[in-house]
Amino acid sequence: MLIHPQINPIAFSVGPLSVRWYGLMYLIAFVLFIVLGRLHARRRPESGWTPQAIDDLLFYGVLGVIIGGRLGEVLFFQPGYYFSNPAEIVAVWKGGMSFHGGFLGVLAAMWLYGRKHGRGFWEVTDFIAPMVPLGLAAGRIGNFINGELWGRPANPDLPWAMVFPLVDDLPRHPSQLYQAAGEGLLLFLILWFFAAKPRPRMAVSALFLLGYGCLRFIAEFFRTPDPGIFGTLSMGLSTAQWLCVPMVLTGAVLFGYSRKLKA
Fold it and tell me: How remote is the C-alpha of 23 from its chain's centroid?
């Protein structure tokens, strides 16, 4: 049985400015997007994505992630707390970002980008999908460092069961690391190799929806459910699992439809 190392959430300070690990993980995610985007564009030169276009995509994506992620946390998971403490809504450096909200924010941002630059919505989302998972993994590592979003109680004999001292003395699943491995590394490998060859329009985007929705749905069985608009456990499922259902259904429909299209 392991004990959470209780890492100081502040990575370093420069005078009155404190830089948190959580923020650094987001910075790493954005850098990974740029690096992977350039590699992806080189192996698929027919796509016509330039370094400048990828930089512009990142700018739109950052806005979508931050605005959508925070609003998702406020509206989907903790509306009572944030409406009682409205000043906390803008305190993103303390953590508290919803993937599903960030996902919707990024979709809106990619639609705006495509409209401005004359690219189709699916053309944009198919290109960015393989670059997203490693950024998600970085975010989950940030959650682990913060000691937040801990797992459900685990069998004490589980070799990697972990006690989070700030929570209680129970051995728990380190679900943040499960998610970093599943929704992060595994999903990245699936999408990265799938997108290496020309695919029908919306196929890569659909596979992201299917992959993330399924992997997150499974991971929620090991993670302490967040409070949310559907309750802590409604019909045996957490709020995040309920939000994954339309992702999986939409992904399945889109993937089936894409198979009728030419690559």
Answer: 14
Residue 140 labeled ligand binder: yes
What is the helix (H) or strand (E) element at residue 209, kind and residue range? helix 203-219
Alpha carbons 171 and 121: distance in angstroms, whole number: 45
Query: Going residue by residue through the chain (263 aa), what tens digit of pLDDT does each one get?
Result: 899 999 998 999 888 888 889 889 989 999 999 999 999 999 989 888 999 999 999 999 999 998 988 888 888 777 878 888 888 887 776 667 788 888 899 999 999 999 999 999 999 999 999 999 999 999 999 999 999 889 999 999 999 999 999 899 999 999 999 999 999 999 999 999 999 999 999 999 999 999 999 999 999 999 998 776 555 556 778 888 988 999 999 999 999 999 888 65
Closest alpha carbon to 145 in 23, 237, 57? 23
Report how far residue 91's alpha carbon sits from residue 251's, in angstroms, rounded to the nearest whole number. Answer: 33
| Contact criterion met (CB below 8 Å) for 48 and 89 | no
Q: Within 13 Å, how many C-alpha atoms sit on residue 76's CB side?
A: 24
CA dihedral (128, 131, 133, 138) positive or negative = negative
Backbone phi, then psi, for 234, in 5-degree steps?
Answer: -110, 120
